[in-house]
Amino acid sequence: MSSDLLHKKCIPCEGGVNPLSEHEYKKYLDQLKGWIVKDGKKIEKDFSFKNFKEAVAFINSIATIAEHEGHHPDILLYRWNNIKITCYTHTINGLHENDFILAAKIDSIK
Question: Record keywords: GTP-binding included (predicted)?
């Protein structure tokens, strides 16, 4: 399950590889809870918190993980206590295993 993804490390992706196909990314998506695929190129998940301070603390925790992994999600804070996380690999304009590794690690802190 996602514990497999938790034990992996993101690898640098500087392009030159194809994005995951639907068949390929579904095996990773099945290991995550609550993440959805957008346009076949991105995965997203919304998180809600009791207050603004908790939401910002969660963003800071994500920043620490993202820096450690060398893979950075898009983060949107909206309505003061909600966060939308979007993961995709910019260099290939699509999904890579790194996106699912990062998603699993984000889920592990919530």
Answer: no
pLDDT in tens, 57-77: 999 999 999 999 999 999 999
Residue type, 67: E
The one-letter code for the residue type at 80 is: W
What CA–CA distance (Å, rounded) separates 24 from 28? 7
Q: Which two tokens stand for residue 6?
A: 């938790």
Sequence length of the chain is: 110
Tokens found for residue 66? 């993202």
95: left (phi over 0), alpha (psi -120 to 50) or beta: beta
Q: Which CATH superfamily is domain 2-11+24-107 in?
A: Transcriptional coactivator/pterin dehydratase (3.30.1360.20)
pTM: 0.94
SS3 call for 29: helix
Q: Are 18 and 92 in contact (CB under 8 A)?
A: yes
- Output Rg (C-alpha) for the chain, integer angstroms: 13
